[in-house]
Design a protein that fits this description.
332 residues; alpha/beta; 5-stranded parallel beta sheet; 6 helices; 10 strands
């Protein structure tokens, strides 16, 4: 969007925006700028307040029930409630709230903010409202994607969620958990005052297609039987295509990468590259180098990330010259 205007805002993270994780992944702040507040401060008119207020009531009731269940379990087990509650994360509730926006408005833009909290002491679970989406989240996201000319799914999450039911959604922003001014940062990206330029540090896959080797989440013991086949090394080696691969990321422009020269000096490989901005907006690109190691007595993945670098901002039509150095001893 070039200028603020009317916008339809939905989702658990619109008002309950998560700035950080649990435990040491968070700090106390006097105030956190939510997505809703960031949009309002920039001059947007939010036309979906009835939905947001209805969701607040659903979420508040779900939280009361969640606390009551913890207290009941603690009483049955004869332990303090904090022993049950510590590390427990309430899954997002199902809801039955109509998506109608205020009468008399016809915004062309809608945003759905999907939020999940996670962090120290709270392992993820493959349940609806946590790693998986709830039925109502799937329903509303797909409905908004079909109904609105401009629709953006925002992921206010600290870890992966299973996006496999949302294959038709074309615009997804991984906002993550950016701290106390997260709402302002999001609005700057939405208005094009800045731009996304990050790459995924995690493989995003459907839960049913994830690496099931090992016994993850065992409260007593975990055996790492997957060996070297962790994350992208597993998917690349077995030929599986995840939803979004490690190292993937788009922005508001595109780049062409050309190799100028590869040189060897002892055990150091230097790769000289030209990175050209072929789009119409400024941007930054992260160039990644993957290496395959010859087969030997030790098992090896198909390929592994050996080096990377991020360019400075490149203007439209301009070219940046970069060098990525790789020490071959790091690959032994």
């Amino acid at each position: 969007m070039a200028e603020p205007g009317e916008i339809a805002l939905f989702g658990s993270g619109a008002r309950r925006t998560i700035k950080g994780g649990t435990g040491s992944g968070d700090v106390n702040s006097r105030h956190v700028t939510t997505i809703e507040e960031g949009l309002e401060a920039a001059g947007f008119t939010i036309v979906s307040r009835p939905w947001l207020e209805a969701y607040d009531r659903v979420r508040d009731q779900a939280h009361q029930d969640f606390i009551a269940d913890i207290r009941t379990e603690a009483a049955e087990r004869g332990v303090p409630a904090i022993m049950i509650g510590m590390g427990s994360v309430m899954p997002e509730p199902e809801y039955s709230i109509p998506l109608d926006v205020d009468a008399g408005t016809d915004p062309e833009t809608a945003v759905y903010v999907l939020a999940r909290t996670s962090g120290e002491g709270s392992d993820r679970t493959p349940e609806a409202g946590d790693l998986r989406l709830t039925d109502t989240e799937i329903r509303d996201i797909l409905t908004l994607n079909e109904r609105f000319e401009k629709f953006l799914l925002v992921l206010n999450v600290g870890g992966v969620v299973d996006l496999s039911p949302l294959g038709d959604v074309g615009n997804i922003l991984l906002l993550s958990q950016l701290g106390a001014t997260i709402g302002d940062a999001f609005t700057d990206v939405l208005l094009g005052r800045t731009y996304p330029s990050g790459k995924l540090a995690t493989t995003w896959a459907a839960w049913d297609e994830a690496d099931q080797i090992g016994d993850f989440g065992d409260p007593d013991d975990t055996h790492y039987r997957e060996g070297i086949y962790v994350g992208y090394r597993f998917y690349d080696s077995v030929g599986k295509e995840p939803l979004f691969p490690f190292g993937f990321g788009l922005g508001y422009t595109a780049f062409d990468i050309q190799t100028r020269q590869v040189s060897l000096d002892g055990a150091r490989v230097s790769i000289d590259l030209d990175v050209t901005n072929t789009g119409e907006r400024p941007g930054k690109e992260t160039v990644q180098v993957y290496v395959s190691v010859p087969a030997g007595r030790l098992d090896q993945p198909l390929q592994a990330l050996a080096g990377f670098t991020k360019t400075d901002e490149i203007a439209p039509g301009a070219t940046a010259h970069i060098t990525i150095d790789i020490d071959l001893t790091d690959l032994t």
